[in-house]
Design a protein that fits this description.
The protein is mostly helical. It contains six helices and no strands. It has helices at residues 2-16, 20-52, 65-80, 85-101, 103-106, 110-146.
């Protein structure tokens, strides 16, 4: 019976001691999990914007700010002449993407914010001009119908 008690106490003392191989595996598994989470997180940060906003924020070198702002201003002038509302909306969307691409390099320039104000002024003017044109056509139609 003493041998049985001595065997039980020996097994109890060995089970209370931690197995270094088991501890090492746990540490390695924890480090691997942290590394995997870090890789997935950094991939999400870079991939998600590329999927949902592929053309946004294209970087333009700082030296080209005035040139690109001038091109955008000239394209606003041509947008005023577009009569079709759907085509104008499509062109404004493309213009907005180009404008958003300037944010990183030219966002602090005073012409950058003025350009945005001009864009909405042109859009409002084109919309009002379209309403004025349709109103004038109605007036002409009624004037010709009265004769």
């Amino acid at each position: 019976m003493n041998a049985k008690v001595a065997g039980e106490s020996a097994s109890n003392s060995s089970s209370s001691r931690r197995d270094p191989a088991r501890t090492g595996r746990r540490v390695a598994l924890g480090l691997y999990a942290i590394l995997a989470i870090w890789v997935m997180g950094s991939a999400l940060v870079s991939v998600v914007p590329q999927i949902f906003w592929p053309h946004a924020r294209e970087l333009v070198p700082a030296a080209d700010c005035s040139r690109v702002e001038g091109e955008l201003a000239r394209s606003l002038e041509t947008l005023r002449a577009v009569r079709s509302e759907s085509e104008r909306d499509t062109r404004f969307a493309a213009w907005d993407e180009r404008y958003a691409g300037l944010a990183g390099a030219c966002g602090s320039s005073p012409g950058y914010t003025d350009l945005y104000r001009a864009r909405y002024a042109v859009e409002a003017a084109a919309h009002e001009e379209g309403r004025l044109t349709s109103l004038l056509e109605e007036v002409r139609a009624h004037a010709l119908g009265d004769r």
